[in-house]
Structure formats: structure tokens, C-alpha cells
């Protein structure tokens, strides 16, 4: 995704109307920003992250540029200069503020961005009231909803990155002190047969263009762990010399360990009495039973090798997830952190808690073609040097998960809620 917009396939068939989901999505973004001060919303923690204010404005610009300007007769731009400020990657649209310098946009102010959102929301209401225009714009409205949902997750992870960068360790939301002590769910193995299987989106409901075309893949028999790898298991990896044993690492991964001085997951700190980790709920003791998070592909791969296992391919993961209910502890659960696996048999934590790294490079499926125009720019041009993640996280909006979803990041990146699940050959 790396959480950007893209072309899509099909139309969502949820019970709620497209207009209702549009309004709900726009309201949720505003609600997610509500705990933040205007100062919080301006700063950019790193080149991968963006200010909260920028997320709120960029998603608004998307609707203005791709929905309102083309389809709402008489629409007046809120401010023509905003295209330069809040365009993201769309080369065909025109020049834009460099990504790593978005934190320098002290103007427009957060108050102006809120006014911008109100202006565009009012215009979207007028568009939805115009039957002909609404029908013509419906597919791009659907795309805009999903695009904004991606940025809702990014807003939260980017704020966590920002709050972890300062000396005060502020909490996005306060929580009770301490951590519950829970038993770790046993790690069992679920076996899957090999064969030729169909992979990719089948065309019913919304999907990004990188989820298709649906095609056949050869899968060999494999086993998948019943749950995600936990913090407690990761600490054993640390104590066993995981970050000091070069033979566990890919060459680029070992170079990252040495260059970046990695000694544990991002935001991990060893403290008296145990490990602590910065979270959206503040600086808290690590929950040993919860899934490890904020790890890179390199770290996930090294742990799998340490455990005598491997990462699943994205095709194996999709096959395993195909019969699992599409639900989990995502943003709607309002937990804002990964939680321990529930007791029971079969696969758990497939959706929610943490995105799971796979061993698959992010590449086009056979027959993939980018969509024409600006909305086709995002996915196809990033199909190089990145790896696929599957599932969802505790910050993924509800209704934004499916077995075919292909999230993707560079192998060194770890500021997202990323974890892993082990696999083995049968």
C-alpha cells in the first residue's frame, strides 16, 4: 500500500451506502486528530512519516482533485496553492512539496486545514445530492474512502513515531498503568496441502489494482504457525545473541543492524525489571504475551532463521487465510496496541494486531496493468525492492481488510505495526 492511493477493481457491497461510508470515513479522520494539539499536527518525525495535518489535508485534496473538480459543476477550489502543498506522489498532476520537507509546512495552519476539510465536505454533500454527478463519481468516491482509510492508519503510526522522538514520551491516549500478566497461547502448527491454487481478488467488492488479476500459483505443502510471534519470544532472540550473530542475517540486514545500531524492535528499551516500549498509550512495560511489533523485514527473516523456520510466502498466507473470518482486533476495537492471541485451536490473529511480513517480493501479478491517469501511478511504480505484508493491524480501520490485500514496505522500514508469523515446509 505503502498506504497510498491506487486504481481499484469492483465496487463495495457493504450494507451501508457509499455516501454514509464517505461521511463516516471523513468524520473518523477528524476524530483521530482530536487528541492532538495544533503543534502536534505540524511536526514530521522522519522522512517516512508525515505530519498529522498533512494527512488530513492530503486526503481532502484527493477528493477535491479527483472527485469534486471533475464532477461537481461550479466547484470552487478552496485554495489553488494547496495542490503543491498536499499532492503526494502524482507526477502527472504537477510539482509538490518534497516528502521529507512536509514538516516545514507551518502554513497553511491546522485551523486552515480544518476549514479546508469543512469546505470539501460540504461540496461532497452537494455532489452526493446530484444523482447524475454522484453516479459518475461513485468509483472515485470509493477509491477516496479507501485511500483515506490508509492515511488514518498512517496518521496514528506517524504520531507514535513523533511522540517517541521527544523526551517526554507523551501518550496519544492515556491508559491504566502496568500490564496484565497473561499466559501465552501455545504455538501450534496448522498444515495445508499443496497444489495449484487461485490467488488474487475475484472481482466482487473493492480491491486495489495490485490485488489482481486473479491467477494460478503452485503451492507446496506447508505449515503455518497458529499465532504471531510474541514479545517474550523476541526477547529470547535478543538474549540469545540474535542481534550480534551475523550468520542469522541477510547481508543488507546485517549492514542495517550495524549502521543503525539495532538491538531490538523499534521503540524497545531495556529497563530495570524488564523491557519497555513506546506505544500510542505511552511508555509502557512490554506485554510478553502480545505480538512483537515495529520490526523490519530483515529482523523478521533473521528471527525465522533463528527459530529454524521461514516466513510464509504471500500465496501461502492467502491460502491459509481464505477460510478465516475477515475480522480481528483492528481500529474499531479501540485498543490501539497488539493484544495476545486468544486461546483455542486453528489460526488466530490473521487479521488485526500486527501486519505480518511475508517472504514475497512485491511484484506484479501475471497480466497486471496500471490504470490510466494519475490514480494509476501509485502501485505499479513501486513494484521494486519492497516486500509484501498481509493481514491488518490494531490501527487498520474496520472494513479495510481482506485476504487479498497486499501491503508493502521496504525491508528496512519498521515504524508501522509490523510483526511476523512463522512457516515451515510440511
H-E order? EHHHHHEEEEEHHEEEHHEEEEE
Indicate the low-confidence ranges by residue numbers: 1-15
Question: Helix fraction?
Answer: 25-40%
Give the class from helix and strand content and strand pairing: alpha+beta
Q: What is the count of distinct domains?
A: 2
Q: Compute the number of helices.
A: 9
Euclidean distance between termini CA atoms: 31 Å
Kindly report the spatial arrangement of strands forming the biggest sheet: 12-11-10-13
CATH topology (level 3) name of the largest domain: paralog of FGE (formylglycine-generating enzyme)
Please tally the β strands and state the result. 14
Shape descriptor: globular
What is the highest CATH level, the class of the largest domain?
A: Alpha Beta
Radius of gyration: 21 Å
The largest β sheet comes out as: 4 strands, mixed
What's the CATH architecture of the largest domain?
Alpha-Beta Complex
Rounded mean pLDDT is 93
- What is the H level of CATH, i.e. the homologous superfamily of the largest domain? paralog of FGE (formylglycine-generating enzyme)
Strand content: 5-15%
Structural features:
4-stranded mixed sheet, 9 helices, Four Helix Bundle (Hemerythrin (Met), subunit A), 14 strands, 2 domains, globular, disordered N terminus, 426 residues, 3-stranded antiparallel sheet, alpha+beta, paralog of FGE (formylglycine-generating enzyme)
